[in-house]
Amino acid sequence: MSAQGSAGTAVDLRTDLGRGLVLRNPIVAASGCCGYGTELTPFYSPEVLGAIVGKTITRAPREGNPSPRMAETPAGMLNSIGLQNPGIERYLERLLPDMQALGEVPVVANVAGEDAADFAALTERVGEVPGVAAVELNISCPNVSHGLDFARVPERTTEVVRACRERTDKPLWAKLSPNVADLRPIAEAAQAGGADAITVSNTLLGMAVDWRARRPKLARGFGGLSGPAIRPVVLLHARRCVEAVDIPVLGCGGVRTAEDALEYLCVGCKAVQVGTAGFQDPLRLPTIVERLGRLLAELGCSRLADYVGSYRAP
Ligand SMILES: Cc1cc2nc3c(=O)[nH]c(=O)nc-3n(C[C@H](O)[C@H](O)[C@H](O)COP(=O)(O)O)c2cc1C
Predict the structure, then answer these.
(1) Could you give the number of structural domains in the chain?
(2) Is 173 within a domain?
(3) Which atom of ligand 1 is closest in space to residue 55's alpha carbon?
(4) Please, which residues have CB within 8 angstroms of residue 289's CB and are 6 or more apart in sequence?
């Protein structure tokens, strides 16, 4: 898609994420923040987005963690949903067909397994569906007991990604965790396993306390922090990953505006996922797409691709 800039210039917002997947623009709805896409249709046509990532699917249905499982924090929110989802069978039967009916927008299936074999089996099942444009591996969920096991250890990251790679020819994205001091070895491990792209990142671990009741605000005691509060942390991880790997990096963390998205694109991310901001304002994502084109036109860029990675390092 091209966006009309303020100077009347059409900006080519297309972005190439590898293995033949070219998005019409770089703004992607992040997993867990737009259900399975049908939640967006009362507000706008999802076709204006670059892609939509569905909520994580597991083999068996999951009820998720006990409530309360959301808490507001300054400039962000904590969640410990715990991968509530109806399971792969219902997803394939009902939810995925609904997603495909959304129109001309690439649909990304996000899956989480208990181990490498489980991840691979799920990847194969969703990868076989013709309308699935890519598979995102959630190897970094902080809200399930085994969640961070994979994304904190390079060898386990490679093992999971490789097992999935062997079972699909679809584009494969590995979603990484920011809860490590240095994400580069994990990004390299995902690339070594055959990932076509990496998503940087999932939520940051955090907690909040009701000091009167002397109890945690989340029933599980802790959860994942998202929203503007995490953007500087994730941006640094993303920049370092861009330098460390050859595959595309999708930035994900705290984007609320087109200006925020441009920070990620400037440091070399080829696309940007937006999650929490859509809860605050359901029209936020299309607004970002529209303004992104205008800001690039103001900078004199006729193609997003010319701007991506144009960051001038100190
Ligand atoms: C309520 C909620 C549910 C989420 N569920 C998932 C999920 O099921 N799978 C996943 O990979 N990420 C999930 N995430 C993480 C987001 O996709 C995203 O990585 C994170 O929130 C950071 O981006 P943001 O600051 O734009 O929200 C969830 C986030 C929130 C806030």
Answers:
(1) 1
(2) yes
(3) 8
(4) 1, 3, 13, 25, 27, 48, 49, 50, 258
CATH code, domain carrying 111 = 3.20.20.70
pLDDT in tens, 193-248: 999 999 999 999 999 999 999 999 999 999 999 999 999 999 999 999 999 999 99
312 domain-assigned: no
Q: pTM of this prediction?
A: 0.96
d(CA 2, CA 45): 16
C-alpha 174 – ligand 1 centre gap (Å): 14
Q: Which of 34, 141, 241, 301 is catalytic?
A: 141
Q: Is 141 designated active site?
A: yes
Torsion 224-255-85-130 (CA) sign: negative
> Tens digits of per-residue pLDDT, 112-124?
999 999 999 999 9
The minimum-distance atom of ligand 1 relative to the CA of 136 is 11
Short-list 304, 291, 198, CA closest to 242: 198
Domain contains 241:
yes
Name residue, tokens 């861009």.
242
The domain containing residue 174 runs over which residues?
Answer: 2-307
Pocket of ligand 1 (CB under 6 A): 30-33, 55-56, 79, 81, 83, 110, 138, 175, 202-203, 226-227, 230, 252-255, 274-277
- Shortest-distance atom of ligand 1 to CA 140: 11
